[in-house]
């Protein structure tokens, strides 16, 4: 896969990041990208790479997969800048592009093999009860260990605020499947966190 987004962009002789055009606001940056102004694409990548990489990492099973997701997402963002009409924040729009890219990526990795049959669990009664406080890096590592289906639903519902109806529509699954995936993801995380807590106590 093309690695142009994993390393600083290569500029041709006419391109420079020291253009006189100001790119202080998202609108100025978007306009510059649409017009193909020198350095605009590189500035977009530099400005938002860390934020969007964090989102990709949550949905991916590894850093390598996150890099692939980020690369595909930036290609889509650059190709669709003109579609952003200023409704909502530009960062929010890009976040949705990354999430949609991650969903498509996970589908390629056999998302459906991790789907579960419908169940009659009382969803609202289920909570993760582990009290251990994890560092962000540790928690991210646990989320990345989840199967793609669990990981996708967990991120969409818990972190990104999608409803089960919205998740079902995005993933083309039943609402009950989305709820089951979420419950199983929480159960798996609680189990892993509990094991980590017991290890800490035994030290």
In short, what is this structure?
By secondary structure, the protein is an all-alpha fold. The N and C termini lie far apart (44 Å).
Give a written overview of the molecule.
The protein is mostly helical. The chain folds into two domains: about 25-110, Orthogonal Bundle (Rna Polymerase Sigma Factor, Chain: A); about 115-200, Winged helix-like DNA-binding domain superfamily/Winged helix DNA-binding domain (Arc Repressor Mutant, subunit A). It contains eight helices and no strands. The longest helix has 28 residues, at about 175-200. The protein is globular and about 55 Å long. The model is unreliable at about 1-20 and about 110-135 (pLDDT under 50).
Low-confidence stretches: 1-20, 111-133
Order of helices and strands: HHHHHHHH
**Total domain count:** 2
Here the CATH topology of the largest domain equals Arc Repressor Mutant, subunit A
For the record, the CATH class of the largest domain is Mainly Alpha
Largest sheet: none
């Amino acid at each position: 896969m093309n690695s142009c987004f994993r390393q600083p962009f290569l500029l041709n002789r006419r391109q420079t990041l020291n253009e006189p055009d100001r790119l202080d606001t998202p609108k100025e940056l978007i306009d510059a990208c649409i017009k193909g102004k020198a350095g605009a694409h590189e500035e977009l990548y530099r400005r938002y790479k860390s934020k969007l990489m964090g989102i990709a990492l949550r949905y991916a099973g590894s850093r390598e997969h996150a890099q692939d997701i980020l690369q595909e997402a930036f290609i889509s963002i650059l190709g669709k800048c003109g579609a952003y009409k200023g409704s909502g924040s530009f960062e929010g729009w890009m976040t949705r592009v990354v999430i949609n890219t991650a969903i498509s990526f996970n589908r390629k990795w056999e998302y459906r093999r991790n789907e579960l049959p419908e169940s009659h669990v009382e969803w609202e009664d289920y909570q993760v009860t582990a009290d251990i406080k994890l560092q962000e890096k540790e928690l991210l590592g646990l989320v990345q260990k989840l199967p793609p289906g669990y990981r996708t639903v967990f991120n969409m519902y818990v972190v990104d605020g999608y409803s089960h109806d919205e998740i079902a529509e995005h993933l083309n699954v039943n609402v009950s499947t989305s709820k089951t995936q979420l419950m199983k993801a929480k159960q798996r995380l609680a189990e892993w966190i509990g094991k980590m807590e017991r290890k800490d106590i035994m030290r």
